[in-house]
Amino acid sequence: MIGERVPMVDAYERITGTIDYAQNLTLPGMLYARILRSAHAHARVIRVDASKALAAPGVVAVLTGADLAADPGLKPWFGPFIKDRAPLAIDKARYVGDPVAIVAAETDDQACDAVELIEVEYEVLPAVFDIEGALAPGAPLLHPGKRHLESFRPDIVARQPGLEDTNVIHVYKLRRGDIEAGFAEAEVVVERTYTTPGVAHVPFETHNAVADYKGGKMTIWSSIQAPSSCGAYVAGILRMNISDVRVIVSTLGGGYGGKIDPMCEPLAAILARRTRRPVRVSLTRAEEFVTAGKHPSRIRIRSGVMRDGTLVAHEADVYYDGGSYSLNTPEKIYRGYASTGPYRVPNIHVDSYGVYTNTLPASAFRGYGIPQVAWAHEQQMDAIAEALGMDPLALRLKNVLQPGDQFSTGETIAENLHYSELLRDAAEHIGWAWPPAPRGPGAGTVTGTAAGASAGAGARVRGKGLAAIIKGTASYGANAVVKLNADGSLNVLTSTVEMGQGALTVLAQIAAHEATLPLSGVRVSTPDTANTPFDQMTAASRSTNFMGRAIRRAVKSVKQQLIDLAASQLEAAAGDLEIQDGAVVVKGSPGRRLTFAQIVTTSKVGSLVGSGHEPVKVKLDVETGQGVASPQWHPAICGAEVEVDQETGKVTVLQLHMGLYPGRMINPIHCELQVLGASLFGVGQTLFEELVWDEQGVLTNPNLSDYMIPSFLDVPRAFGQTMIEIPDSIDVHGLGETPLPAVAPAIANAVAQALGVRVVDLPLTPERVLRLIHERDRGAPGGGRGAGAGGASTSGKEASA
Amino acid sequence: MIGERVPMVDAYERITGTIDYAQNLTLPGMLYARILRSAHAHARVIRVDASKALAAPGVVAVLTGADLAADPGLKPWFGPFIKDRAPLAIDKARYVGDPVAIVAAETDDQACDAVELIEVEYEVLPAVFDIEGALAPGAPLLHPGKRHLESFRPDIVARQPGLEDTNVIHVYKLRRGDIEAGFAEAEVVVERTYTTPGVAHVPFETHNAVADYKGGKMTIWSSIQAPSSCGAYVAGILRMNISDVRVIVSTLGGGYGGKIDPMCEPLAAILARRTRRPVRVSLTRAEEFVTAGKHPSRIRIRSGVMRDGTLVAHEADVYYDGGSYSLNTPEKIYRGYASTGPYRVPNIHVDSYGVYTNTLPASAFRGYGIPQVAWAHEQQMDAIAEALGMDPLALRLKNVLQPGDQFSTGETIAENLHYSELLRDAAEHIGWAWPPAPRGPGAGTVTGTAAGASAGAGARVRGKGLAAIIKGTASYGANAVVKLNADGSLNVLTSTVEMGQGALTVLAQIAAHEATLPLSGVRVSTPDTANTPFDQMTAASRSTNFMGRAIRRAVKSVKQQLIDLAASQLEAAAGDLEIQDGAVVVKGSPGRRLTFAQIVTTSKVGSLVGSGHEPVKVKLDVETGQGVASPQWHPAICGAEVEVDQETGKVTVLQLHMGLYPGRMINPIHCELQVLGASLFGVGQTLFEELVWDEQGVLTNPNLSDYMIPSFLDVPRAFGQTMIEIPDSIDVHGLGETPLPAVAPAIANAVAQALGVRVVDLPLTPERVLRLIHERDRGAPGGGRGAGAGGASTSGKEASA
């Protein structure tokens, strides 16, 4: 089963449109709820008058933040790390789109109409919309005195004195070696600042949930990536036990990290308990755009290197803009540890900040903080190479992590992550040469190799770029239960969410392999948190690996039970038995065997149950950021070739070649599609995806006309991938996110090679590229020729070296 | 938690009518199916023409037995012990009401209309409607050559040569001691024959199921008492894996044994897979009456006794009328072992037969074969007492099983079942006296003690009677899984069905007790066979005991995991730790403790899972019927006082006093209501419940006007119960069925005492009683004065003794 290219188990339903998305669920007597959202970026909610709405046809209930605060049955503040959010704004609205009130009515139209009748009196407050504004002295505070807010995960969110009355959510500090000595030793110093914007997840299915409250039990059907955690949040908010909150997830129409945090579930649950009716909360596409996004970032890196290219010092200030509520920001900022990239650096000093601004809450987003630092560190590597006059490939090969090297966190990367192989392979695939052969205008053919160097405005020029990234993952709370039935078939119970990635298929392959059963003999359940064991979330490219391991442990437990039962049934010693093809066999006597079905039936047990857990292995020191940051590391390489039209500024990606180390591919189809999908996500974010707010904090492009995602026309003209596998193993490295972070810097490095100017702010829109070309051609500062000379401020240290 | 009178966890939903019965489920796109049933008791199906039905408005599919037989994707013959039934009659219809075809249509009305359009050509065959007819030489055979039918449970249904071409389904033989020697030794021999009729279960909610087929997975929402077994049947019929068939059961509106066998589920599933639409199959009340019933019985007992009352020989022929399909008859006939009653008998010879007749299939029914034998053996005891001139109470006390005695099956009843105490107690409660004081006509007051002996016709006379019964139970496949959540709350996963008996509440109490948690900290799931482990069925008064034990084992496993985790967290040896009130505590250092929530959270495991199984302990020898018939024995005593109106024949139950040994009552409210409910079931079956067929095999009373169940007016004027508990234990004896079998013989014994004639055929309708009174008063045979002289043939052996 391992390595088989089997189709998805739900392929027929996907094709015929008959999957039971939560979005399609209706229950008898169900109410429809619609949300009133703040029109102000920062405003005290003085009074909400819902009387007209309550009198409107079909309206059953209206709920405001004041109602939440006044209800002793609720504990409305919640959050995965810091409890700074409520289902409805209680004291203040903190961004344009912040939920202020909700109406439940007999029909959706009635709910929509009634929302318009709610009158809110606000006291408008000054607001901040970006990192700089949030950190400026005297900036308006989103959560003044926020350190009084309860921390849900004190292991992550340690108290940090002095930050109470700032907009800083939390700081992660990494201290390694002697940073002063490192820079003193360095012969060249390069310092630059890179930024990334807010981006939307754009799942096909918007956030939605239906809640029903009966018999003291809350049942929630939801489109959520973290059903177990969602159940715990809802239980906390409604002062219920986790055992009484059941979250059922069928299949998601996309998630990408944006569906980890409960957005509709608490509201649906509170309304369901109040009205004793099932309640649906479902977001419009416009609401989806103001519900969760990717963290904008600003990252300053100062690198100290020797003339031979050896990295000796890395200093970085990493700022993640968490928006109005902290969500996972307190933990995401730990990704500052990867601002070094996948390189050996002996002396490191990183401060990584999460910051509140009056924008939509930033959540997890495919890549979880790594795309931001990768955008910085991989352009920084090219900038260093430029400063040294060195081949960027050679610079990377010189410094990239080898087995046994220590990562920035001090942990030894024992495993061969194959960086050197994959870098050389990607370089070869894109026809990398150093120095780049002079290249002329190209006609967009992919097969052409070295063409010409950058030419004057109006001509199309080409360039090539490389990037290497490192990404960790999360193992918290991966549990599985398996049930072997009387016919020898196996049910697998997990809270892993199928969201298009093929989890139901791949986990079944792993279970079938471990159980020595055909794939048809295994069925993986979808999450139902009353019945399926805890799993933190389906995210972090973790499920195939960690849930797969938990499943294998659970199956091993059942195999041991089978052997113990068969030992008495076969009158043999357990040690003389082994498992083969769904049967227990006496070693060396293939005729003496009992099938699983025979063993279960004979024992009259009915079914055999086993459970498995994959333990957490992560621990970082609060003071130094040193320790173990991830149970496993995922490498990715991207080689890119681009063509830039210097007349329009349009960047065309001619070729992408991805290099990955999936360990073993359980299902190569899924792996290849994950790599392609994540790479296209990367192309969109590189070239055009960006949430744009006006001066009032109003999102100007909350729709799919003004906010573009990649279409078939944006697929690179050539796309390749190299996968290095561990043969004959089932050691899995997650792939769902890994390709993404490498794409943008590789393309930017290629653009820099083509144009001789560097874009340090994403995305590479034609306007931005054209402006740089104009600056370059005017000889403006930072507009000089040669990769590494464009963009943000840079300081050489040649003089002092 | 143990012994607490907590209300049912779903009390609010019961009162407000908001429980999610399967009957109320509708799914988008759902089809409605209706069944065409045979109008003939026995007929070969020559041809079914469904063309007009298929052309009717809204009809999506019509299915016939021929379709089932022709479909290579199906294996239509199924059954719990012998596979002699198909979802639709394939070769022959075997009773009036046998499903012949089914229509699925867009609306229920369309399905009902289309059923009328199906044309069936039958070859009508001779039929048999009772045990005598079925066993008569040359009787028409329902399943000729039936021994070729596959046996699903060869451990139960051993081959019995010579029965292939008879209507005998199966025979259970019990041989103990030396029956010849026993009768040779006996000083008195009493022989009588007793009969019971067919009876309906009459659940408020009729049988129904909705099936949906998606992604190779069948989901069935059903009102069934045995979801795990149902899943296995459906998997077998549709040639699917058990892992791919999910049976979901919310709450049943009553079951009483009639919902153990799948009646709607296979049809719904086959139609759902054919149409790729959800399909509902739901029975009308009239259909419910022809779907499953209680086994009619005829039981001849010949007892050999010494003049001092010592029982020395017991010979019985026990016939259970299984109707047209065997269902659980092959195993139910084993209850012939209880035809001795709860008495020591050294020499036993029992042949217990299951017989096919052209009537509705007889299924499990509250008491599972014991009410039939109890009706016989407890009247037989009074007949013996009469023959000996002995106090029936004294006769029972002399022979009743004491701890250490051997039961008919040879197994030692080690446990004190408290028969003597309970018999004396019931006798005292009803004012038992021997010889009975002369009693005159009563006015229906309950408090009156000894009144008068039987008087002439036209007067109301009173009598008192006693009965003692013994009932076994079943332990097959009781499994539980528990999940401890991060807040210390506990989910309990079982396939036990809530059907009004309070399983969700009582199992939660047991789990809470074992886990040292408050009841509010425990939630028991309803069955979902993809996720909940196998359980044979919710029946046989087994769930509180055996599922309770499985749950306790599962909780113990989690407790051990908690101790192991806490040992490292508290830096203590596991042996020094104990569990108290939801925490792990260092023995002797109450301050050193961690709550379950702290342990789960600190360990980052997310949830802890444990599983538990209660093993099967039953095994009977095929030749002798000796061995262990039940993992546990349940006693019941009934004391009854009746008044009989000799003018109308009407019997009024003045008083019932039940004596039971529940072990420990987990929830006394539930126990008391179970005893009351089962006793009222007994009153109905004693006085008026009876399925009546005409000569063509047509049921004449398939409705609640002509088939009466007890109303409030039938509740005894006084009702009491004595429960002997084991203090400070959690040893449970099931109660759901136990009281029922004792009621009818106690009332009949009281009627015999009042009238001086004995009714040996149930029910005691006024017509039947009046006829006996008339016979008595005419001095007809068997109509003489004195209990034990009336009814069936009786032979004394005084002469030969």
Total DSSP E strands of chain A: 28
Q: List segments of chain A where confidence is low: pLDDT < 50 over at least 5 consecutive residues.
A: 442-457, 782-796
Query: What is the number of helical segments of chain A per DSSP (H or I, 4+ residues)?
Result: 19
The Cα radius of gyration of chain A reads 27 Å
The geometry of chain A reads as globular
Oligomer: homodimer
Distance between the termini of chain A: 58 Å
CATH architecture of the largest domain in chain A: 2-Layer Sandwich
Helix-residue proportion of chain A: 25-40%
Largest sheet of chain A: 7 strands, mixed
As laid out across the biggest beta sheet of chain A, the strand order is 3-5-1-12-9-10-11
* Biggest contact: A-B, 58 and 58 residues
User: CATH homologous superfamily of the largest domain in chain A, by name?
Assistant: Aldehyde oxidase/xanthine dehydrogenase, molybdopterin binding domain
Structural class of chain A: alpha+beta
Number of domains of chain A: 3
The CATH topology of the largest domain in chain A corresponds to: Aldehyde Oxidoreductase, domain 4
Please write the CATH class name of the largest domain in chain A: Alpha Beta
Task: Indicate the proportion of strand residues of chain A.
Answer: 15-25%
Summarize model confidence as the mean pLDDT of chain A: 93
Write the SSE topology:
2 copies of one chain form a homodimer.
Chain A: H1 11-16, E1 31-37, E2 43-49, H2 51-55, E3 59-64, H3 65-70, E4 92-93, E5 99-105, H4 108-115, E6 119-124, H5 131-135, E7 168-176, H6 179-185, E8 188-196, E9 208-214, E10 217-222, H7 227-237, E11 245-248, H8 265-275, E12 279-282, H9 285-289, E13 297-305, E14 311-323, H10 329-332, E15 347-356, H11 370-388, H12 392-399, H13 419-429, E16 460-471, E17 478-484, E18 490-493, H14 503-515, E19 522-524, H15 543-570, E20 577-580, E21 583-586, E22 589-595, H16 596-603, E23 608-614, E24 619-620, E25 627-628, E26 634-645, E27 651-663, H17 668-687, E28 718-725, H18 740-755, H19 766-777
Parallel strand pairs in A: 1-12, 10-11, 14-15, 18-19, 27-28
Antiparallel strand pairs in A: 1-5, 2-4, 2-6, 3-5, 7-15, 8-13, 9-10, 9-12, 13-14, 16-26, 17-18, 17-23, 20-21, 21-22, 24-25, 26-27
